[in-house]
# Entry
Amino acid sequence: MTEFKCDTRSHGNFLYGKKQSVFTVLYRLYNYCSAKKTMEVNGVDYQSWHEVGHAMVCLLLGGEVELIEFVDDENSIGVAKARCDYPPEIKRAIACGGFAAEYLLFQEGYIKMSWREFTDKMFDNAVRDRISFFDGDFAQEDGFWPKEMDKEFGYFAIRQVAPLLKPWFRVMKTVVRELVLKRKLNSQNIHKIIKA
Ligand SMILES: [Zn+2]
# Structure
């Protein structure tokens, strides 16, 4: 059983220069301009999306989610957590689930900031997730991780995990809404929403 508690600090700037297709840029522009609600980065909704991302990847790949909840303890490092049970071979994908969910929010036009600014935010939120992904803390003296490792994590999240989550975007939206409302969802709650 592993808990994904998600918190702060660190950077990855390898995505800044990432070439994007004309289609991707136009798609983002369309979503940006359409009248969608803006989501505050690291607000309650946003944090929920991150956790639901972990949980959803776990479920989609055959793991089980015991609960997703907000941590009200002031001393707690994370503000929300997902408690997942899964076979070891899907651990890396689950670790990327939060990052991938945040990426989808950006892609769908919910985040009103530049891609460059946003990548910093995503990496800030993925410190513990990267430790889980690589099975260790590889922060260097300056607090940053080696660029190659950031790259490996980021590309895995964007290329492998985000496409897995994308068809479930609407379902995730409902799970997030319920989580924000109830502050805690158990396995039964989650399955009920997914089946609806
Ligand atoms: Zn996370």
Observations:
- Residues 65 and 156 are 22 Å apart (CA to CA).
- The pocket of zinc ion is lined by residues 4, 6, 50, 54, 98, 129 (CB under 6 Å).
